[in-house]
């Protein structure tokens, strides 16, 4: 867990300055990568395979099953929270509303918020939470699933979450907004409690929307 937290902090530090470090107007691709050599038409070709978000199975605030495939063709922003959070979650989601309002009429941008307290955060609780925030439609999903599976999934987003009876609300989690491209690759991470970084996230989503077709293939 300490290693995960360190990795995520490093990612956040890089993302915080990526608006000035972008090369050729492209966002960086984060996470591990592997060089894979194969033979194509008798020639040896080396491709780079990037870290991607794996499959998952959850239910949203409308009781609809949501998986990795549900996000096919979409750029999306992910975060981890719980509805009874007394600390950073309210701040995070007030800031996320800015992202929602900016892109709610866009056809290819979504937000997914994974609950880390699925025992309490039932479909009904998530729907009530969304309603209070004024969230409608399918641009922002609040997701509930198997607790251990969600915690494991958080590692794929380079976000640390854990139970801690001594922490406010009984959980510890990092307040990152993680930007994912249409190929399920991590393209940025932003402190969801920091309005300046959330503004950078909005700019980077717009940049990702204009990314050349040559960047689509892994």
From TrEMBL:
Residues 47-210 form the Thioredoxin domain. Keywords: Copper, Disulfide bond, Metal-binding. One of its GO terms (molecular function) is metal ion binding. Cu cation binds at residues 85, 89, 173. Gene3D superfamilies: Glutaredoxin. Disulfide bonds join 85-89. It comes from the Bacteria. InterPro entries: SCO1/SenC (IPR003782), Thioredoxin-like_sf (IPR036249), Thioredoxin_domain (IPR013766). Belongs to the SCO1/2 family. PANTHER family: ELECTRON TRANSPORT PROTIN SCO1/SENC FAMILY MEMBER (PTHR12151), LINALOOL DEHYDRATASE_ISOMERASE DOMAIN-CONTAINING PROTEIN (PTHR12151:SF25). This is Redoxin family protein. It comes from Mucilaginibacter aquatilis. The lineage of its organism: Bacteria, Pseudomonadati, Bacteroidota, Sphingobacteriia, Sphingobacteriales.
